[in-house]
UniProtKB/TrEMBL annotation:
GO molecular function: ATP binding
The keyword Transport appears for this protein: yes
Domain ABC transporter: 6-233
Pfam families: ABC_tran
UniProt keyword terms in alphabetical order: ATP-binding, Nucleotide-binding, Transport
PROSITE patterns, per database record: ABC_TRANSPORTER_1, ABC_TRANSPORTER_2
Name by which UniProt lists this protein: ABC-2 type transport system ATP-binding protein
Length: 302
């Protein structure tokens, strides 16, 4: 069942004459990862600030459905801001316990959770290290732990993967997925489309403060993404493009990519290949979310 944790309804926010967010509505549900995407300046941070109560919308509403009398129930929300920053002279455990205390979370529980989380993030034994002694990636892990230490029901992650190496990115991905599997509602802003594609259930794509797409990843791929078929080491003289199902053909090195028109499934086309057509590898794929994002952001639509 879809259990909505927060509804954003028709919010608008302008800075002088600049419309940063124009009439946007969005819901985030328990156990779901919702990606908020958009090119630089699209209005993502402004949306996040309104969710956190750091900014008040000019019109529209942010409505939390958490068991709290506060309009913005901060102790139930976790936030990893885009701007990283922890008290450099403080020790790892002290910083985490301080953040837990800000959310009124029990100190003993926080200590135990912190120890467990430090192990999960490969930071065991660093409880007494000062933040300044940590690498950037390690400090980011501590900040992530600080954002989830109080078991938030709603978690906002603003660019959690920036500056992380691929191994650390994987650790973050696993933890984010595990939190969602445990029922946390997650709003994720990220520019790494390959990660977003695999991690998010739904995507809210905005551009210049306006909604472009709000749907499940599968529906978006269905709606915007045609199939393509890649043949490795095939006969490039074969007239692949002499078929009305084919939109265009690209040859790059030993790869021949056949792009199909919307709604064409390539299987029937592939079955029509002559038996003696050689190829070493054949891949059927859809356009990636990256391709879709770029074409939408450039205003090319589908
Ligand atoms: N405090 C502010 N004063 C004036 N203009 C602002 C302010 N904050 C944001 N803006 C403007 O509002 C628009 C949306 O900015 P916002 O920071 O929300 O975008 P974003 O999608 O988070 O971008 P990025 O991916 O670059 O972080 C931009 O045109 C920005 O210049």
């Amino acid at each position: 069942m879809n259990e909505v944790v927060v509804d954003i309804k028709n919010v608008k926010k302008s800075f002088r004459t600049k419309k940063a967010v124009n009439d946007l509505s969005l819901s985030v549900s328990r156990g779901k990862i919702t990606g908020i995407l958009g090119p630089n300046g699209a209005g993502k941070s402004t949306m996040i600030r309104m969710l956190m109560g750091i900014m008040i919308p000019d019109s529209g509403e942010v409505i939390y459905h958490l068991d709290s009398h506060e309009k913005i129930p901060r102790s139930r929300i976790g936030f990893l801001p885009e701007e990283r920053g922890l008290y450099k002279n403080e020790k790892v455990m002290d910083v985490i316990l301080y953040l837990a205390d800000l959310k009124d979370y029990d100190k003993e529980k926080a200590k135990q959770r912190a120890l467990d989380l430090l192990v999960r993030f490969g930071l065991e034994g660093h409880e007494k290290s000062k933040i300044e002694e940590l690498s950037k990636g390690m400090a980011q892990k501590v900040q992530f732990i600080g954002a989830i230490i109080h078991e938030p029901e709603f978690l906002i992650l603003d660019e959690p993967f920036s500056g992380l190496d691929p191994v650390s990115q994987d650790v973050f991905k696993e933890e984010i997925q595990a939190l969602a599997d445990n029922g946390t509602a997650i709003l994720l802003s990220a520019h790494q489309m390959n990660i977003v594609e695999r991690l998010c259930d739904e995507i809210f794509l905005i551009h210049k403060g306006e909604k472009v797409v709000y749907d499940t990843v599968n529906n978006i791929k269905e709606q915007f993404s045609n199939y393509k078929c890649v043949l490795v080491n095939t006969d490039t003289t074969y007239p692949f493009n002499e078929d009305e199902r084919v939109e265009r053909v690209e040859v790059e090195g030993n790869q021949t990519t056949i792009h199909f028109h919307q709604d064409v499934h390539p299987l029937s086309y592939i079955r029509s290949f002559p038996d003696d057509l050689h190829w070493d590898e054949l891949h059927i794929d859809r356009k990636s979310l990256h391709d879709i994002f770029v074409s939408i952001a450039k205003g090319e639509g589908s």
